[in-house]
Write a structure and sequence with these properties.
By secondary structure, the protein is an all-alpha fold. The chain folds into two domains: 457 residues, no CATH class; 79 residues, no CATH class. The chain is 86% helix and 0% strand. It contains 19 helices and no strands.
């Protein structure tokens, strides 16, 4: 039974992780033409507004799926189907009220929250806050039921709609002001991109609402079959829901406050104190946030998907007193995440310029964007693990501890950022340094709390040393293969740099994946038994046996 439960968790995590990868790929594919339309300056205005939108979203409803799935999973594990349904209704009421409040706050307070050229962009995001709240409740409902399919499909639909509308709206709005200055055109282009974000959320909400309507009779029959006799008053359910959601929201808020705080400190010091031009600072920030950070978020999104999948299972096991299973699930989640995060970081560092050029080929910003990406690569490991450990701590009822970790890390990195910006010429590179510092501090503090409260002990050699050694060899091989292929293509007469890069990076990535997993398996860091637990594990294991990897 435990084996089946573990396979189910891995399957659901795999579904959500696959969807997250697809979503990120779509995001990257549309970012390239969008950047070509609105430019780095437009990206900067969008980045300032988007980061504030993200913070308000964190405060209002972003963490609701995880919090709701935790509460409902505990109720469902005890057979309290009626109370679980009431928790869902309470979350809907809570999200609707909070969404309306913060939507108005964002619209009317935009001039206080972002630089002047980003005000209209931020206002375009305002309705999305309300829509996302309802969407978050529906996603949390399905996650609590142990299925990630609906959430995964809705995320893909959301990103497709976002891509289509962002590009179309940006081009259309910029066309309307084609006779005006470049800054005005960039601002209107950023507004079009913001409109795309809201359109994507609306499409996802319509899909989730439709699936809930279709499945509602089944879930109502489960409610009717409740024989526990537990039927809490709606007011007490709403109170419990708010008390659980609030720590999730606060920890997510602090975790993501760093982005908005850093951009505010950066813009205030560089524009206000050091008298840099707003357009230049916005352009530099656009390269950092909408190129380097966007790429590093791809592997981190896998950890986010895994954390969403493990919360119901860990919360259920912990609620039933199964401490060994709780620890085992937490360890598996960390290992699964590290096996992806470590080589991802290595690949981004080794192939920073080829990957950046592939996705954002603008030559003027390519050198800076690739340097920023190479420096940020290491944060993939720390952020990914921290995402998982946050989820584990919240699942075992220690919901305030991620908040403690994030607050302490935020305080330290903010002090360092102010010092670097005021007393050095690092400019945008100071943002990279404090991002690395912040990710390391959260990682270390969360590890301390897990060891203290869950007695979680890592197998350091198997969990860290072997994957890192495999990734180092992988990175050197990928780097060598890329430059060899590029040299051969130039010798063969190919002259277009972008196509040389494209033709060389593909074999380099293929070699990287094969080398990494070959070394990983041969070193014993990944066993045949673990592969069998993966989706299609039997097929994968059979192929690897034929290749004599075991």
């Amino acid at each position: 039974m435990e084996q089946e439960s573990r396979k189910s968790v891995i399957m659901q995590a795999g579904i959500l992780a696959t969807a997250s990868i697809v979503v990120r790929i779509i995001g990257l594919l549309y970012r390239a033409p969008l950047t070509a339309i609105i430019g780095d300056e437009g990206n900067g205005y969008y980045g300032f507004a988007f980061n504030i939108y993200t913070i308000i979203l964190m405060i209002s409803s972003y963490s609701v799926p995880s919090a709701l799935s935790k509460i409902m999973a505990q109720k469902l594990a005890l057979g309290q189907y009626r109370n679980a349904q009431r928790v869902f209704h309470a979350a809907l009421v809570y999200n609707a009220g909070v969404g309306i409040f913060f939507g108005f706050l964002m619209y009317f307070g935009a001039s206080w929250l972002v630089p002047p050229n980003s005000v209209s962009v931020l206002r375009m995001f305002a309705p999305t806050i309300f829509l996302f709240g309802i969407l978050g409740a529906l996603r949390g409902y399905y996650q609590a039921q142990g299925t990630m399919v609906q959430t995964s499909v809705s995320q893909i639909l959301e990103q497709i709609a976002n891509a289509i509308v962002s590009i179309g709206a940006a081009a259309f709005l910029m066309h309307l002001v084609a006779d005006q200055d470049a800054t005005t055109q960039a601002r209107y282009g950023a507004m079009g991109s913001a409109l795309g974000t809201g359109s994507g959320v609306l499409i996802a909400l319509l899909f989730m609402g439709w699936t809930y309507y279709l499945n509602r009779p089944y879930y109502l029959r489960k409610v009717a079959s409740d024989r526990t006799g537990a039927e809490d008053a709606f007011s007490s359910v709403l109170k419990e829901t708010i008390l659980v959601i609030t720590p999730f929201i606060l920890s997510s808020f602090i975790l993501n406050l760093t982005t908005a705080l850093n951009q505010t400190v950066y813009s205030k010091i560089m524009i206000g104190a050091r008298n840099y031009d707003e357009a230049i600072i916005s352009t530099l920030y656009g390269i950092f946030s909408n190129k380097a950070v966007v790429i590093t978020n791809i592997p981190i999104s896998i950890a986010t998907a895994v954390s969403a999948a493990i919360i119901p299972g860990i919360a259920s096991a912990y609620a039933q007193g199964r401490r060994d299973e709780t620890r085992h699930r937490a360890e598996n989640a960390k290992r699964m995440t590290l096996l992806i995060a470590i080589p991802s970081a290595g690949g981004l560092i080794a192939l920073a310029r080829p990957i950046t050029m592939l996705l954002f080929p603008q030559q003027a910003s390519l050198p800076m964007a690739s340097r920023l990406l190479a420096m940020l690569g290491v944060t993939v490991v720390f952020y990914s693990v921290s995402t998982i450990t946050n989820a584990v701590l919240q699942s075992i009822g220690r919901m305030s501890l991620p908040l403690v970790s994030a607050s302490a890390a935020l305080a330290v990195q903010t002090i360092v950022l102010v010092i670097l910006l005021r007393h050095t010429k690092l400019s945008v590179y100071a943002l990279v340094i404090v991002s690395i510092l912040y990710s390391i501090l959260i990682f270390l503090l969360n590890e301390f709390f897990l060891h203290r409260y869950l007695r979680l002990k890592d197998d350091v050699i198997r969990m860290y040393v072997k994957p890192i050694a495999s990734a180092l060899i992988m990175g050197s091989m990928a780097y060598s293969v890329y430059h060899l292929c590029a040299w051969l293509l130039k010798k063969a007469g190919m002259t277009r740099e972008y196509f040389i890069n494209l033709a060389a990076v593909i074999p380099a990535l293929i070699v990287a994946v094969l080398v990494y997993f070959f070394i990983l398996i041969r070193s014993g860091a990944l066993t045949q038994e673990e592969i069998l637990q993966l989706p299609k594990g039997q097929t994968i294991a059979r192929i690897l046996r034929k290749l004599r990897w075991f």
